[in-house]
């Protein structure tokens, strides 16, 4: 639906949230879509830059599936598909173990015999059970395949963006799934070849920090621009100077260059401290937040 007025915007929110039987994760997905749509709507109200906002719109003539948001200005279009990973259920009073990402010739965490042996040993020594946390790289793979099926063909007037909205804690893991040197999904060593023909950017944002309960911040949690978003391209041919890319960067903040600069300087320090390169994002990401966005790294429980 096109959103041209406050009445249409309120109708859109009502449609998203009034569906019967929404699970917790489905409600988080709906609130994420509303958060970003609200951001674009307010941006157009304040700046009057000619944005046309549509939601749940078909952009691929060969698919019956919608993308969540389309932003159009004249002939330029930004198609945005939002995905919100489920929150891990952390069991209290247990030890926790995980494999940070997929390794060649190593069983996944939930089936890994070495982790199970360690869990048995810890139980014998301390009497505590160990919860083995799942590695969710297959979830990111599914998101990429889903996005690629919904988008239309890439062209010079359109950008197709798969946006992963998650918590700050999850974001370090999803950076690993995407970028780690052993199996990262947009690296030459990806554990599974994927078709990115219709995806221009994969973006990751920690905007779910403002949606999940029990977090307290000193900023407006309903303003998407207050969160950290990093854009990564699986292609070498994204033209940052094209008109449609200029539109994207004029309305969405991308901290990728700053993050990559921080990574370049911080990586050698982590290696000197004995942190292997393939898991550095688990340490680098919270260090980045601590330096540039301390509000996220020190949010208080209410």
What does this structure look like?
The protein has two domains: 2-88 and 136-301, no CATH class; 95-132, no CATH class. The radius of gyration is 20 Å and the shape is globular. The protein is built from nine helices and eleven strands. With 302 residues, it is an alpha/beta fold. α1 (6-17) packs antiparallel against α2. It has helices at residues 6-17, 24-47, 113-126, 137-150, 168-179, 243-251, 256-272, 281-292, 294-297, and strands at 2-3, 52-57, 67-73, 76-83, 95-97, 130-132, 158-165, 201-205, 215-216, 229-232, 300-301.
Output the structural class. Answer: alpha/beta
Number of strands: 11
The major beta sheet can be summarized as: 7 strands, mixed
- Helix and strand pattern: EHHEEEEHEHEHEEEHHHHE
Number of domains: 2
End-to-end Cα distance: 37 Å
């Amino acid at each position: 639906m096109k959103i041209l007025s406050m009445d249409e915007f309120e109708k859109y929110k009502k449609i998203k949230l009034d569906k019967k039987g929404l699970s917790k994760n489905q409600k988080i997905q709906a609130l994420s879509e509303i958060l970003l749509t609200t951001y674009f709507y307010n941006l157009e109200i304040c700046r009057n830059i000619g944005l046309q906002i549509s939601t749940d719109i078909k952009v691929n003539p060969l698919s019956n599936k919608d993308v969540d948001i389309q932003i159009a200005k004249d002939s330029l279009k930004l198609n945005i598909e939002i995905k919100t990973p489920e929150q891990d259920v952390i069991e209290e009073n247990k030890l926790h173990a995980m494999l940070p990402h997929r390794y060649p010739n190593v069983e996944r965490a939930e089936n890994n015999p070495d982790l199970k042996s360690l869990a048995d040993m810890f139980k014998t020594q301390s009497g505590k059970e160990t919860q083995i946390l799942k590695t969710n790289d297959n979830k990111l793979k599914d998101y990429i395949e889903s996005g690629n099926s919904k988008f239309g063909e890439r062209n010079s007037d359109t950008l197709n963006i798969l946006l992963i909205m998650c918590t700050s804690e999850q974001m370090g893991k999803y950076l690993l799934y995407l970028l780690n040197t052993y199996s990262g999904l947009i690296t030459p060593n990806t554990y599974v070849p994927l078709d990115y023909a219709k995806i221009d950017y994969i973006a990751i944002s920690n905007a779910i920090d403002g949606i999940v309960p029990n977090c307290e911040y000193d900023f407006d949690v309903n303003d998407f621009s207050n969160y950290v978003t990093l854009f990564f391209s699986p292609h070498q041919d994204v033209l940052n100077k094209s008109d449609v890319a200029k539109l994207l960067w004029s309305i969405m903040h991308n901290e990728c260059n700053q993050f990559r600069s921080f990574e370049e300087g911080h990586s050698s320090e982590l290696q000197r401290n004995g942190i292997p390169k393939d898991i550095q994002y688990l340490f680098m990401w919270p260090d980045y937040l601590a330096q540039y966005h301390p509000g996220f790294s020190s949010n208080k429980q209410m």
